[in-house]
Amino acid sequence: MQIKREELLLYAVTDRTWLGNETLYSQVEKAIKGGVTFVQLREKHLDKGHFLQEAIEVQELCKEYSVPFVINDNVEIALEMKADGVHVGQSDMEAGAVREKIGPDKILGVSAETVEQAILAEKNGADYLGVGAVFPTGSKDDAENVNHETLKAICTAVKIPVIAIGGISRENVQELKGSGIVGIAVISAIFAKPDIEEAARELKEKTKEVIHD
């Protein structure tokens, strides 16, 4: 599945933290209606049965809106439910092994923090890179900061599209201007907001300014 650069403009990573009385399905739908262009299902604590059920439901929703849908880390579930692809970190299965498992037609996203990791991921079949954390973040305990010079160097070193991730908000996204990224990946900047749809809409407009300048 060929990924288009514009599909990576506003990449939402799910998180159950802010569900309250809502379902993940309803929150993801609001995010898509607000302009999210790509969805990654990230579940660290659900058992396989519930994870699979939720993944299938969210995938159907994404199909309805023609938004690419990938699973975080769990290659087996991504294959079982025929997700559009999978996103893996540096501590997960090595990118080349994932590519072998999922075949040439699925999307493979890889997290990178250094130019070396980025070049290797591209060589091993990654379709895009998630680089970060570009700002301090509370979403991942082990997130290392990637300074903006490194982000720029990674964008220059690889031909595949790069998205920035980690601590990005409506207030600081402008600081990424000129880095070479094609989009941003966010969690709390959308899902922690009282009005998810409006938060996505505002963030998308601000990100467009960053990308097109």
TrEMBL record:
It holds the Pfam family TMP-TENI. It is an enzyme of class 2 (transferase). 2-[(2R,5Z)-2-carboxy-4-methylthiazol-5(2H)-ylidene]ethyl phosphate binds at residues 137-139, 167, 187-188. GO terms for biological process: thiamine biosynthetic process; thiamine diphosphate biosynthetic process. Binds 1 Mg(2+) ion per subunit. Its EC number is 2.5.1.3. It catalyses: 2-[(2R,5Z)-2-carboxy-4-methylthiazol-5(2H)-ylidene]ethyl phosphate + 4-amino-2-methyl-5-(diphosphooxymethyl)pyrimidine + 2 H(+) = thiamine phosphate + CO2 + diphosphate; 4-methyl-5-(2-phosphooxyethyl)-thiazole + 4-amino-2-methyl-5-(diphosphooxymethyl)pyrimidine + H(+) = thiamine phosphate + diphosphate; 2-(2-carboxy-4-methylthiazol-5-yl)ethyl phosphate + 4-amino-2-methyl-5-(diphosphooxymethyl)pyrimidine + 2 H(+) = thiamine phosphate + CO2 + diphosphate. Its cofactor is Mg(2+). GO terms for molecular function: magnesium ion binding; thiamine-phosphate diphosphorylase activity. One of its GO terms (cellular component) is cytoplasm. Keywords: Magnesium, Metal-binding, Thiamine biosynthesis, Transferase. 4-amino-2-methyl-5-(diphosphooxymethyl)pyrimidine binds at residues 40-44, 72, 111, 140. Condenses 4-methyl-5-(beta-hydroxyethyl)thiazole monophosphate (THZ-P) and 2-methyl-4-amino-5-hydroxymethyl pyrimidine pyrophosphate (HMP-PP) to form thiamine monophosphate (TMP). Belongs to the thiamine-phosphate synthase family. This is Thiamine-phosphate synthase. The lineage of its organism: Bacteria, Bacillati, Bacillota, Clostridia, Lachnospirales. The gene is thiE.
